[in-house]
């Protein structure tokens, strides 16, 4: 049984029953049966369905957004924007998907050859609570376009969202079994991955969860895509527009109450502009308003749970023990709900264990860099390599950042975000494989070569 707890009020919602073994087996069988037909469906049938799903997400965006607010605490305005982004992703694959699946001809010494993209089968997605719609749709839209079918194991906190996604896709006219939510706890995933009806696995989550899933999938030699944690650098150089950089730094650190893999978590500032940047950044962070996630004036809601808030508070204690200094904020706010104040940490030893971890809350670590080389070295001095944001108007510095920052993504003079048109993913302990764009579509497809 899953009992949702509203992190803004502490109130319990309506319990959601977990699937019995028989019900889970029925869903797996249905996925396998649906794949037999969907794999040979016409491209225009797939694109029409994706467009219809986009329309349903747009039509029901308020209702869908409110479920996310109740289950994990994001603000209504950001939850609504998230649902709208999902609609855009379905529409993107409806429009651009067919060209991504075009065959390619080659001339070889043995005569002509054709490379064709063919579906693999049911894809199991293990998804987190922080962007409960967007994380799922990043896999679901290309899965449907590819001719695969989807099985979702959503986070325990957001089972209502998982059920709502399945309901919305079905209401748009999807065949029975094309996309199904599996209301099961994480403890049942290990036994699920070896099932022969599951062709591949994708996970967005923690490093520990990624290791477990990769091990289980590896024992079955099944393809796996992992999008794991990040400790993204936000680098500010002397040529940057400091007003724009500081404003973006605040937004990048507090988005989703700091609970985003691509939140800017480490601000690395050139010493020549450190004081000027900090004056602007500190003013912006002090002005952040935490409160009722349903209110328009709220900048950030609660953390996703009391447990998550305590995890962040424990990390802050460890960072202070290592020598870090909290300028302000980083406190549990009084009253009901898992609220905490935004804050800034300085003097954190870069090599300390505390500085190597992902801080999943609205607290920024700020570091001073003496020059370009030192900024890049600090950026790369963590086990993660997901995203990065760099602020410079020097073309030579830009080239160095693009080439030398060890990350899957770099945004220049803007806050990093994801979009359905471009590939998304990381390196090092941030995972492997890509979502979105044509590469995300191709991850779970058979690139089959036909000679003759």
Would you kindly provide a written description of the structure presented here, covering whatever features stand out?
Helix content is 40%, strand content 18%. It has 452 residues and is α/β, with parallel strands linked by helices. It has two domains: 230 residues, 3-Layer(aba) Sandwich (Aldehyde Dehydrogenase, Chain A, domain 1), CATH 3.40.605; 181 residues, Aldehyde Dehydrogenase, Chain A, domain 2 (3-Layer(aba) Sandwich), CATH 3.40.309. The strands form four sheets. A seven-stranded mixed sheet has the order 10-11-12-9-8-14-15, sandwiched between helices. The protein has a six-stranded mixed sheet with strand order 5-4-3-6-7-17, with helices on both faces. Strands 1-2-18 form a three-stranded antiparallel sheet, with no helix packed on it. Helix 3 crosses helix 4. It is globular. The mean pLDDT is 97. This is NADP-dependent succinic semialdehyde dehydrogenase.
